[in-house]
Specification:
2 copies of one chain form a homodimer. By secondary structure, chain A is of the alpha+beta class. The first copy, chain A, is built from 10 helices and 14 strands. Chain A has helices at 4-14, 62-78, 95-99, 102-116, 168-177, 192-204, 210-218, 232-243, 258-262, 266-275, and strands at 23-25, 32-34, 40-50, 83-93, 120-128, 134-144, 159-163, 224-228, 246-250, 281-286, 297-298, 301-310, 316-320, 323-326. In chain A, helix 2 (62-78) runs parallel beside helix 4 (102-116), helix 2 packs parallel to helix 7 (210-218) and helix 5 (168-177) packs across helix 6. The radius of gyration of chain A is 20 Å and the shape is globular. At the A-B interface, strand 2, strand 3, strand 4, strand 5 and strand 6 of A face strand 2, strand 3, helix 2, strand 4 and strand 5 of B.
């Protein structure tokens, strides 16, 4: 069995830097050293994942957990319209997990995703824990000056867009709670079984919408942006609060995960899409004059216009069958009143 | 009781940025935005603190835990010779701790130390946990190009210096294990009781040696540097491994915490100083030609020459009463073989 110093050396050897990585000194000193590009801003984000709260050991493979730990932070960088460049990962493991293959497989999943987006792993920390797995993911991104897309610049009249589809992750989580397990799917046919597996993967293997985020930034198309991690109702409210605006969305326009319709969950589909969370799609606002410039799709992912920002500060409505309802933020909250 | 979003707003309001903070956008978006100074490198470090492994709830006040969470990362930045500038803190709390005053007091201790060194808190994450407190501290520092001090540039013949004194934190930890508790000390006299309290604080309230680190960098005095967190024997070995050198130290020269001598722990004093860890002093190496330029003290903290680097790669010796012993790294290791 490796001790932590030996294991850190193994990870270090797997993370050779390319010339343009901006890494002066990676893993192996008191701190990593990076060299940001001239006249760029840095974007910094961190996400804590706690066993039994954010995931269960039996539900997710170590590889997928490694993938997801990085993906959720990459999604934050995507939501700023920036390019992710460097990452650190802190991991706390009970001793019996340390002794297993868990850590090798976890880093395999983590590093595969990092390599896909040219993100350099430059550091982290390893600790033992009394009983539960603890992960803290940390990513630094870069964007040209004044090109970051904030939550706070939406204007009344701006149109609201959402990438991809919603609700799949939340139903995936429900299926996991019902005891349905992830299997290696060999068939590509859309059977009920395959729809289940796709929903599980929507929850366990989110894909950050980096190309969308960066395109919107480069073409200056979005006035505000956020990733849908807490849930559409909560995350749209975050935009409203930071921008001092209100909003309405049209129920019929919300892009519902196609696997939900396939499974006839119709009654709760809208609830899952509004409040489910963890879809890691992007919600962004666009001036109506520039809305025609929004690409139909990027890398196979479409964007859908679902509503409009208003001047009624912090009031969000949903229109459904000619009626208008107040939409309260019902997304995930660790410490509810 | 506040939910996490309400509490994050409270923390955000307490962290007003100054004009020269380099913070474009602090707490409250998907990621924080910072603007590094021109032609500077950034130093990045993270430290995981797990309840029952790194601390016990009954031993440390929430304020001191907040202080220590930041201090250990500032110590890493000090060991690079850099200036800490921005920080993020992730914290996972069991629900019953969330409902207590813990979080307010924790952030008070954390922010007091951050303000002392002009470090801006720009983000973090909050989660619930099943049972234990989990903290991940993250700090970004800045240093002029090529001024960071690595572990890897020590040369045979370089002299080895240590700031402050060693062993106090380890004895403080032993006292905590024996049930001795922290009290508000009103007396300044060095009684046995006060020595105990000072030792507890050496463990619970480490002070990062930032002035020492930055002075050594600015005057280009140190060839290599590390902070003594694992223990002198382990951390000196880290320098040897990264620099492809060996080293010897003289037992009689090691600066032992004065409270240890006061308590007549003589037999184990050297062991505590060599292997105890968590003193967060700096160990640095200096070319013999430049050793006369090392300040006698900075801000009341002295530096002591304890030995010399050699060309016997990865061999560390300790000289004691005219004998030479091999010194094995015996510092802290989460997952021993």
């Amino acid at each position: 069995m490796h001790n932590e110093f030996q294991f850190i050396k193994i990870i270090k050897d797997r993370t050779k830097q390319t010339k343009d990585s901006g890494v002066v000194k990676g893993i192996g000193d008191d701190a990593a050293i990076i060299r940001p590009a001239k006249d760029h801003q840095l974007l910094v984000t961190t996400d804590l994942l706690i066993e039994e709260i954010d995931f269960k050991r039996d539900w997710i493979t170590p590889q997928l957990l490694g993938h997801k730990s990085l993906a959720v932070s990459l999604s934050d960088i995507a939501a700023m319209g920036a390019r992710p460049r460097w990452a650190l990962i802190s991991i706390g493991l009970p001793k019996e997990i340390w002794r297993s293959k868990f850590k090798e497989e976890f880093y395999e999943g983590y590093l595969n995703l990092a390599n896909k987006y040219n993100v350099s792993l430059i550091g982290g920390d390893i600790s033992s824990t009394p009983d539960h797995i603890v992960i803290d993911s940390f990513v630094i991104g870069e964007s040209a000056k004044d090109r970051s897309i904030l939550r706070s610049e939406a204007k009344p009249g701006d149109l609201i867009f959402i990438t991809g589809s919603l609700g799949g992750s939340a139903l995936g989580l429900q299926l996991l709670n019902q005891g349905i397990q992830l299997k290696r799917a060999n068939s590509r046919r859309r059977t009920k079984h395959n729809a289940y597996q796709e929903l599980l993967l929507r929850h366990l293997q989110p894909e950050p919408r980096l190309s969308w985020g960066q395109t919107l930034s480069q073409k200056r198309l979005a006035t505000s942006m956020i990733d849908i991690s807490d849930g559409l109702s909560s995350d749209l409210m975050h935009i409203c609060e930071e921008s001092n605006t209100g909003a309405y969305i049209e129920a019929a326009k919300i892009p519902i995960d196609p696997n939900l319709s396939a499974l006839d969950h119709t009654n709760s589909n809208l609830q899952l899409a509004l409040n489910g969370g963890e879809d890691y799609e992007l919600l962004f606002t666009v001036s109506p004059k520039r809305a025609h410039l929004i690409p139909k799709e990027i890398e196979g992912i479409q964007a859908t216009c679902v509503g409009e920002m208003t001047d009624e500060t912090n009031r969000v409505y949903i229109k459904r069958e000619k009626r208008r309802y107040r939409l309260r933020p019902e997304g995930f909250n660790h410490f509810k009143n």
